[in-house]
Predict the structure.
Amino acid sequence: DTGVSQDPRHKITKRGQNVTFRCDPISEHNRLYWYRQTLGQGPEFLTYFQNEAQLEKSRLLSDRFSAERPKGSFSTLEIQRTEQGDSAMYLCASSSGLAASTDTQYFGPGTRLTVL
Amino acid sequence: AQSVSQHNHHVILSEAASLELGCNYSYGGTVNLFWYVQYPGQHLQLLLKYFSGDPLVKGIKGFEAEFIKSKFSFNLRKPSVQWSDTAEYFCAAPYSSASKIIFGSGTRLSIRP
């Protein structure tokens, strides 16, 4: 399968712990996106990379969240000092085309985070 | 677009019924619009998109959507639904910065066999 993969698929953690998620995009895609989705809502934009450069970060993202894409391939999303409000599905997507605004994004299966 | 609204949260139809799901966006310059679908247990995937040209866009699985600029709408339609169309449907558009895509809250479609 050459689609977007995410690891782990599920993560249960205690409040205050740090967690890290990984996303492997489709290999030839230069754009990578992270979203958060809660029940009954659509995906909420968190951040965007073009190659290794983080070009946009949502104002909703607190300082506890950080994302990297060190070699322009896989990406990691870290949440420090998790809070119960961080419980959500974290989605990764990748794309490649003329512009992010017209690209088709290909989504991974998501990582479901539960903070106890 | 500045925002994307989907007013139908849950739609229940019988097989063979016609479908129309509403999507409205607020004006924000160049308009690019998407419909994504998430079937049960599967990833989000693109149904169709519009960014120029013919305002009537055809997508996969018999879906189509019409961009009506005067109404700020991009409603999704299908003339005859099947049980396999049971899914959650999301309308989306780029925010003022083109790399940020905003999604509507989604419409859950349930089809009675």
In short: Chain B touches chain A at residues 4, 6, 9, 30, 32, 36, 43-46, 49, 51, 90, 92, 94-95, 97-106 (CB under 8 Å). Chain B has a mean pLDDT of 92.
